[in-house]
Amino acid sequence: MVAVEDVTKVYPTRDGPHTVLDRVSLSVGFGEKVGILGCNGSGKSTLVRILAGVSQPTSGRVVRRMRMSWPLALGGGVHPSLTGLDNLRFICRIYGIDYRSKLEFVEEFSELGRYLHEPVSTYSAGMVGRLSFAVSMAVEFDCFLIDEVTAVGDARFHEKCRRELFEKRGDRAMIMVSHVGSQIREHCSRACVLLDGRIHAFGDVESAYSFYHGNPV
Amino acid sequence: MRAALSPWEGIRTECRVISALMLRETITRYGRHDVGVLWLLFEPMLFTTGVIALWDLVFPHAPTSIPMVGIAITGYSCILLWRNTVGHSTHSIRPNTALLYHRPVRPIDCLLARVGLEVIGATASFAILTFFFAFIEVIPWPEDLMPVIVGWLLMCWWAMAMAMILCSAAERSEFAGRIWNIVSYLLMPVSGAAYMVYWLPPSYREWALLIPMVHGTELIRLGFFGNTVPTFGNPYYFACSNLVATLLGLAMMRDISSKVQASW
Q1: Cβ A170 vs Cβ A186: under 8 Å
Q2: Is residue A93 part of a domain?
Q3: Could you tell me the pTM of the whole model?
Q4: Is B254 an interface residue toward A (CB < 8 Å)?
Q5: pLDDT tens digit sequence for B229-239
Q6: Are B121 and B84 in contact (CB under 8 A)?
Q7: Is A156 part of a structural domain of the chain?
Q8: Among A2, A79, B73, B75, which residue has the fewest nearby CB atoms (within 10 Å)?
């Protein structure tokens, strides 16, 4: 499982400290699918960073007993000056995987063709998104952090991603973060709403939705 | 924050991550064109060769039984080691925040990867130049490799500790990040690279020996030239200074690590 307990995150600003997350607690078990709803600026990304372990909370505790993915979002996690293949090699090395065993999958899934050997900086946004998604599927995780994943690629690629993530890896835990989130309704069993840095937990997605829509900011 | 691992697993992860970062750095820095990664040692070699030629021209009759080329190789290689290591590592976190996206990569790994590369480059350059000039009999073969290795390793350690301190200082303030060029320039003449402690008037010797780097150059020259000129290098003093600097560096790195953010 992964859990945050009483996590507070304060960012320093010119006008003094700004509390982005205020004593937030959340726990996700193996195989559980949890949605987090929140509008822009509600602290979603900060919570995702803390869950992913790439940002430290100001106070509170993070318990991570699952292999957490990096936040799957449009084009994150790849380096522009490296080629697609070098990115794959680098990420596989970091996570201790033999990249050759994943090469075929990434070639096939990303549909980059000879562009796999070109620097990522020459890619279109869609190509970056495809590479980034393919590479993240090459590493095995117990829990996927999904940050507004709807933006990647066209309808056909969308369908491929859906199959890869929600069907083949349907047994994994997922934390989906969104401000609209028809996907949350589709995939999650429960949801939380982030509002002004506080978290409101609901046992089912519909109650979370009605709360979210009842509190427009 | 990593999940709790056994120390052995922790070390293995650490080595894996740092070597991945080093490989990545060689590609982003040198690309795959012409000699590529070999620039890592060509650059310090060319630099040192230039300085050797210059010193040899300026001081053809140095007041010593040691050939000037020998002083220049040992001295300038040391300067390059700490100057390049610290200089290239000072800004090793800010441009790499995108890598922190991957949890196994921590800020200190980005720093250590750059330190590792510079140390490899400087060490290779030092070894090749020594071999070359000894082979063509411009300098004698080193008399005893042990003090050379000890002195050089302590020098590498010193460079790493300084890199940690300067890197975290630069992360806190723009000023600290820019000052290294000036400080390193001022440190060069006192660092022991261009003089031996024995050449100094006795009253200045104890002052010179307060500078940790001087012990490194003295040890290396003891190994190179034996007792042609008496040397004063004390490995224990240098190691203790390094330990203090490392602890300070680690504390400073820890402090800034909680503040830097992954970017995407």
Answers
A1: no
A2: no
A3: 0.86
A4: no
A5: 889 999 999 99
A6: yes
A7: no
A8: A79
Q: What is the span of the domain harbouring residue A6?
A: 1-69+175-217
* Helices A100-110 & A84-94 angle (0-180, nearest 10): 140
- To probe the interface with B, which of A47, A92, A94 has the most B CB atoms within 10 Å? A94
Domain tally, chain A? 1
B136 three-state secondary structure: coil
pLDDT in tens, A23-61: 999 999 888 889 898 888 788 888 888 888 888 888 999
Say what the ipTM of the complex is: 0.80
Strand, coil or helix: what is B137? coil
- The answer to whether B147 and B233 are in contact (CB under 8 A) is yes
* Chain B residues touching residue A70 (CB < 8 angstroms): 101-103
Tell whether B101 lies on the interface with A, counting CB pairs under 8 A.
yes
**Min distance A52 CA to chain B CA atoms (Å):** 7
Interface membership of B230 toward A (CB under 8 Å): no
Q: B104: distance to nearest CA of chain A, Å?
A: 7
- Stated as kind and residue range, the H or E segment containing A160 is helix A155-162
Q: Alpha-carbon distance B224 to A157, whole Å? A: 65
